[in-house]
Amino acid sequence: MFRNLGPGAIGVDRNALDVFSAAREAGFDGLDPDLGQVAELGPAAFLRPYEERGLRVGGWGLPVPLQAGGEQYRAALDRLGPTAAAAASVGATRCATWIPSCSDERPFSENLAFHVQRLRPVAETLGEHGCRLGLEFIGPRTFLRSKKYPFIHTMEGMLELCEAVGTGNVGLLLDSWHWYTSHGTLGDLKKLTDANIVQVHINDAPSGVPVDEQVDSVREIMGETGVIDLTGFLRALRDAGYTGPVTPEPFSAKLKEMSPAEAVSYAGAALKVVWEEALGCA
Fold first, then answer.
1. pTM exceeding 0.85
2. Is the dihedral of CA 163, 86, 98, 70 positive or negative?
3. Contact partners, residue 110, CB within 8 Å, separation at least 6
4. Which residues, in sequence order, are bridge partners of residue 95?
5. Of 77, 132, 188, 269, which is most buried with the most CB atoms under 10 A?
6. Helix or strand (DSSP H, E) at 40
């Protein structure tokens, strides 16, 4: 696994700085791609700044709105093939999205059938180009209680959905925040293998707030409070043999007040500290 920068995940506009140099200087080993640049530049030119700075290509977000109306969903699905082909041409084979943990319209069984129906064509299209799909469960009870019908909100439940999709290329977008707020344990993580994990997000939680009262949009930079056991989290990923990106996503007010360069540097330094504490290596 490798430390990865997703500029948007820390509130940074990637066009506001030399994102490649900033990522490298902050100690990141990878950078999420701007796939719109692949068609414009071609794969070789697109990859040149990655190669020049020794960076790996990170992951990307699914551009298909699963919850949208049928026409909008199908139009986006039709565009997914060319996007996946472009992504695969530069080694960006890890795509991901999140699944709402509740609904006002669909009871659990109906919602499960809906998501399998929507996800299977997506996963099949990605698979045609050698790409995988990561699904993120949403853990906070504050979100779960916000709508009428609860849905999948734990790692175990999301793995069952991955299996139900049935295409063999669907796994988790595993976020330390959602693992913590769903009452996940290190024992849960020890059941995973690299095949189960597509992408990883890392962050911390505010102190002094009961776990069931944590709010999704209010997080902390990794290691700043120690509320989430990131040492155990990272060691479990290592033991699972995870080979993909670990990307900070702290939703931090502190980072938003910084310049883009300062935010990248601060996030990189914070991730380096917890990385070294957990894994004993820079």
1. yes
2. negative
3. none
4. 60, 133
5. 132
6. helix 36-41
